[in-house]
Design goal:
Structural class of chain A: mainly beta
Order of helices and strands of chain B: EEEEEEEEEEE
Strand content of chain B: over 45%
Largest sheet of chain A: 7 strands, mixed
Mean pLDDT of chain A: 92
Low-confidence stretches of chain B: none
Order of helices and strands of chain A: EEEEEEEEEEE
Number of helices of chain B: 0
Radius of gyration of chain A: 13 Å
Number of helices of chain A: 0
Low-confidence stretches of chain A: none
Number of strands of chain B: 11
Oligomer: heterodimer
Radius of gyration of chain B: 13 Å
């Protein structure tokens, strides 16, 4: 089974901190995604990557950046965390053709 | 209006009941996913389908491409089926569009 592993289930950070959320997949998928999920808004795409060192903005990239130095790892970076970035963050990977595998999610609280 | 609409938003039923969750979409798609999210957050892909019907255990998913509509059915529902069920449509170019989710609660 494909596994998508997110490094933390729960995270509490202070306003202004730089925050790294890590995601690792073990099935050599080309495509990786970061979503955030908020009540009433569903899942929204922040960034995705279709190859090493490649990235594309999703629907809500403001306040975030990403890094993909190796195929298996896709990092989401909050340069200066703010309270409105308190959310559930979900990573996913896909080999293409629409098949997706999601991670367990990281619930981030910014205080 | 959202591109993907699910109904109902919340559903409470008794154990053993037959459950139906509906998904309508307004865009052209390559495939449709049904996802399950348990408390705690992790999302599991239940089905990906682009036509017809798929069955896995007590779960059945159908799609009507002409009517832009899909349904997820659960037969002989059980409290462990309690979760949020999310419909997502794949438009190609790695773009998934998600519905708002249906919160299902099955009471013993």
């Amino acid at each position: 089974d494909v596994k998508v592993t997110q490094s933390s289930r729960y995270l509490v950070k202070r306003t202004g901190e730089k925050v790294f959320l890590e995601c690792v997949q073990d099935m050599d998928h080309e495509n990786m995604f970061w979503y955030r999920q908020d009540p009433g808004l569903g899942l929204r795409l922040i960034y995705f990557s279709y190859d090493v060192k490649m990235k594309e903005k999703g629907d809500i990239p403001e306040g975030y950046s990403v890094s993909r130095e190796k195929k298996e790892r896709f990092s989401l970076i909050l340069e200066s965390a703010s309270t409105n970035q308190t959310s559930m963050y979900l990573c996913a990977s896909s080999p293409g053709l629409g098949g997706y595998t999601f991670g367990s999610g990281t619930r981030l609280t910014v205080v | 209006k959202n591109e993907v609409e699910q109904s109902p938003q919340n559903l409470t039923a008794q154990e053993g009941e037959f459950i139906t969750i509906n998904c309508s979409y307004s865009v052209g798609i390559s495939a449709l996913h049904w996802l399950q999210q348990h408390p705690g957050g992790g999302i599991v892909s239940l089905f990906m389908l682009s036509s017809g019907k798929k069955k896995h255990g007590r779960l059945i998913a159908t799609i009507n491409i002409q009517e832009k509509h899909s349904s997820l059915h659960i037969t002989a529902s059980h409290p462990r089926d309690s979760a949020v069920y999310i419909c997502a449509v794949y438009q190609g170019a790695q773009k998934l569009v998600f519905g708002q989710g249906t919160r299902l609660t099955i009471n013993p």
